[in-house]
Amino acid sequence: MQEALQKRCGPGTAAYKEAVRRLDSGEGVVDDGCRYLVYISYRGLGNRMLAITSSFLYAVLTERVLLVDGGSDAADLFCEPFPGTTWLLPRPGWFSFSPLRRLQGYLGGSKQSLGDMLRSGAVAVSADGNVSWSAPPRPPPYLYLHLSGGSGYGFHEKLFFCGAHQRLLGEVPWLFMWTDNYIVPGLFLTPPFTGELEAMFPEKDAVFHHLGRYLFHPTNPVWHAVTSYYRSTLAGSAQRVGVQIRVFHKEQPPQAVLEQVLSCVRGERLLPETTTAGGNASGTPSHAVLVTSLSSWYYERIRDEYGGRVAGGVHQPSHEGRQRWRDAAHDMRALSEMYLLSMCDVLVTSGYSTFGYVAQGLAWRRPCVMPRAPMWSDDWREGLDPRDMPCRRAASVEPCFHSPSAYDCAAGRDVDLDKVTPYIRRCVDVKCGIKLV
Ligand code: GDP
């Protein structure tokens, strides 16, 4: 059904042309069944993949066409998921005044956002759920949804997760969604969607796994990089151990991060600790290790430690040094490494990292998660022992929604999200985060 909608209303169709004309001229709704959700790309690739997945699910639930904006390299990374149409938002010309032209400049603030309109009283929702627009007294042609944690994501933005506010949004033909989060657990907690989502996903912990595998199809160059690296390094071993090391703060002492990784590997008994290079009776090397990190330093230390003990070797596909923006080759390497990690049998991931979430979700493997130290405070310098921060098995393979709303719209107060439903729990790596289990 979604595929048919994407094809009927997507770029290149008469319906799309008319919808853009109405958007640009500020005209209101026309009920031809074509409404749109534009996802505004920003942040790293892991964040983007989780946000696209969330946007897609929201588009399905609200019967909107999903269009992806701004990821200049999206076409280098992914094949089109919907047959006979494109999910990439066509860019209006440089001199166009279309709201679609301004999306990349949103950066978190607009009078045309749901939060700002609620704050200013331009739209109001009464206690019994009635929506009233004022100045002008009708739904606008478009609204921004600001669903990204941090500043600018306050009480009014979070009302997105209320049933009455969903009715309000249903009246707006174009929604522009700005998020870097996996908001799916929040959609399960949004009353008009709960029943449908529960029916759609009998296994609540498989949402990203199914959606991610449906939506993301790496392009041939990316897939070639994945399969050729896999064949030459990992395929021959019986047990592939993937270690994803993501360091968020420059001040983080590398030695402490390394200690945390090694203590996790030892504590979970993931690799042989004796020097006999293991192999099974058939001669297949028992273990191979895949390390992904922006730095080669960790890989070198892990190879020094385990190189002689794991017959399948220790491997790192790339060490990019630092995160880069708008660099297709860089993103292609990042994507191929997420897929390589997803082909491992066991995963050790860095808490808080969406890069790791994508890998574990695609893999359908519950990782051992290394917690991010208490914001890498002075504890490390004061000699905090990594053994005091053991890695923990994630409760499910689902990504963590880092900044959910705790507000129960019907009750009018905050609730403990850990206790609302049996299939939503706190994440082991992000204190306020929630995930499907
Ligand atoms: P997060 O910041 O860890 O949540 O993950 P994101 O994927 O959103 O952003 C981090 C970005 O840094 C990635 O998209 C890559 O561009 C880069 N990066 C981080 N870790 C690695 C890595 O292990 N390998 C490669 N190739 N790139 C990485």
Automatic annotation (TrEMBL):
Location(s) in or outside the cell = Golgi apparatus, Golgi stack membrane
List the GO cellular component terms: Golgi cisterna membrane
Which keywords accompany this UniProt record?
Cell wall biogenesis/degradation, Glycoprotein, Glycosyltransferase, Golgi apparatus, Transferase
Principal location: Golgi
Q: What is its EC number?
A: 2.4.1.-
Instruction: Name the Gene Ontology biological process terms.
Output: cell wall biogenesis; cell wall organization; xyloglucan biosynthetic process
Keyword Glycosyltransferase present in the record's keywords: the answer is yes
According to its UniProt record, this protein's enzyme class is transferase
Annotated function: May be involved in cell wall biosynthesis.
This chain belongs to the protein called: Fucosyltransferase
Highest classification ranks of the organism: Eukaryota, Viridiplantae, Streptophyta, Embryophyta, Tracheophyta
